[in-house]
Amino acid sequence: MNHRINTIVSIIHEKILNSDSNNIDFEDILIGKLGLAHSCFCIYSVKKDKKYLNKVLQILENIFDDLSKGYSSLMKKSSLAEGIPGLGIVLHKLIKTDVLDTSYTTQIDMITEPIYKRCQDELSRNNFDYFYGAIGLLFYLNEVDASTEVAHIVDLLYEHGEASNFSFYNNVDDVYSQGINFGFAHGTLAIIAVLINIWSKGIKKKKVKKLVVGATDMLLQFKRGNIDPSKINIMHDNFDYPSVFPYNIITKNRNQMVKPNADDSVYHFTNRLGWCNSDLSRLFLLYKVGASFNIQNYTNIADEIADEVINRKLYKDTAISDGYICHGSSGVAHIYKKIFNITHQSRFKEAYEYWVGVTLEYMEKEIKKYHSDKDLDVLTGWLGPLFVLSAYQEEEYKGWDTMFLLD
Fold first, then answer.
1. Cα 347 to the chain's mean position, in Å?
2. Which pLDDT does position 198 carry in this prediction?
3. d(C-alpha 374, C-alpha 31), whole Å
4. CA distances, 56 to each of 45, 214, 322 (Å)
5. What is the reported pLDDT for 236?
6. Cβ partners under 8 Å of residue 35, min gap 6
7. pLDDT per residue over 123-180, tens digit each?
8. Distance between CA atoms of 144 and 150, rounded to whole angstroms?
9. Is the distance from CB of 297 to CB of 201 less than 8 angstroms?
């Protein structure tokens, strides 16, 4: 398997170095030019090969040129998934490592001020989304060390949490992110994970811990056995899978105080097994919270449901149909690796190795198809599998998974 992985990894590296960012439609950090720049920086940090650093600087030059000419829409968008926060994150990392001089901090300050205001506005609208709402902006503020702003947002989150039994209901219209969403991309898992990172920096530690424990306890209320079966919907009609936790909960009146078996609640379940929103990502968070705060009960609950999650391998039980990070096999493999690092339980290492093999098979098929520079994104493209397969070969590019809250 090592030789096969080396072949795939070599092809992707060649594709990266020969890429032209002008051929990439989006500028954003998850599926666009900034994502490629951030990935190249992570690779450069390990390889110390200046070709990757030059690629980062070329992409930034391209972006700044488009901004100056009015061709870029980057300044008009201000979510983590789409817009200017991605540029601030990349610039901050380059300044911290002395690739760029401190004069660029002015640029970050110009980005941070409106992002801080936007974060407050999104909180006031009850948009707790990670990709497109307040929590992604809080992640940005924490990444660029805006500690005063982070502390204020924590206070606002805490006020909301105390008033709503620590349920964070997204008051948006998108079916995948509205309501109490229990995933990383749009919901509760991101809130918990971002707060743990804030706690680790020593910011508002008591409030942050109460928020994390409150949100985790709220999640545990909604294990499937606690819910009236008549209120359960299946997210996808073809996959009637009894997952441990719901994908999300929607109430008819957008109730901010959701409790199990409330009369106006509808629970959506799915067979998905992936990073974005699944039993596996929730399993990881239970272990992480348990380890971070020494709460054995969370670890015990995770241990109890672990085998049920691990045994899900077939398409009908996972909905996995590609090798990418978001809801594909490389995201699954990487989460199992992270859980093994926390627990040191051999069952998670075995699951990790299984899904690395699945990722390899997907990517071997992928490279035989027509491909372009647009495939070089980290969320739903080739960069995620590159990092996961490389780590299996013991060449680990630290920092690439920071935005996926798995660091």
1. 24
2. 98
3. 8
4. 12, 40, 27
5. 65
6. 28, 29, 86, 376, 377, 378, 379, 383
7. 999 999 999 999 999 999 999 999 999 999 999 999 999 999 899 999 998 877 889 9
8. 10
9. no
User: Exposed e or buried b for every residue in 32-49, given b needs 16+ CB within 10 A?
Assistant: bbbbbbbbbbbbbbeeee
Q: What is the structure's pLDDT at 240?
A: 66
**Which letter does DSSP use for residue 251 in this model?**
E
Q: Which alpha helices (DSSP H) does 125-257 contain, by range? A: 134-143, 147-163, 188-200, 205-221
Q: Are residues 247 and 181 in contact, defined by beta-carbon separation less than 8 angstroms?
A: yes
> pLDDT of 70-88, one tens digit each?
888 888 888 999 989 999 9
Structure tokens at 111: 């980005």
Q: Which of the residues in the chain have pLDDT under 70?
A: 235-240, 254-257, 261
Pairing of strands 180-181, 232-234: unpaired
pLDDT digits (tens, 9 = 90+) for 312-321: 999 999 999 9
What whole-number distance in Å separates Cα of residue 186 and Cα of residue 203?
23
CB 400 within 8 A of CB 42: yes
Looking at residue 241, its pLDDT comes to 76
Question: Residue type at 107?
Answer: Q
State the Cα–Cα distance between residues 199 and 213, nearest whole angstrom: 12
Written as six digits, the tokens of 64 are 């700044």
In the numeric block, the tokens 């982070």 are attached to 150
3-state secondary structure of 170: strand
E strands within 225-382?
A: 232-234, 248-251, 265-269
Alpha-carbon distance of 17 to 39, in angstroms, equals 12
d(CA 62, CA 107) in angstroms, rounded, equals 16
| AA identity, residue 395 | E
* Alpha carbons 78 and 93: distance in angstroms, whole number: 19
Handedness of CA 67, 70, 76, 79 (dihedral sign): negative
The structure tokens listed for 328 are 């594909």
**Residue 14 confidence (pLDDT):** 96
CA–CA gap between residue 131 and residue 121 (Å, rounded): 15
Report CA torsion sign: 290, 291, 294, 296. positive
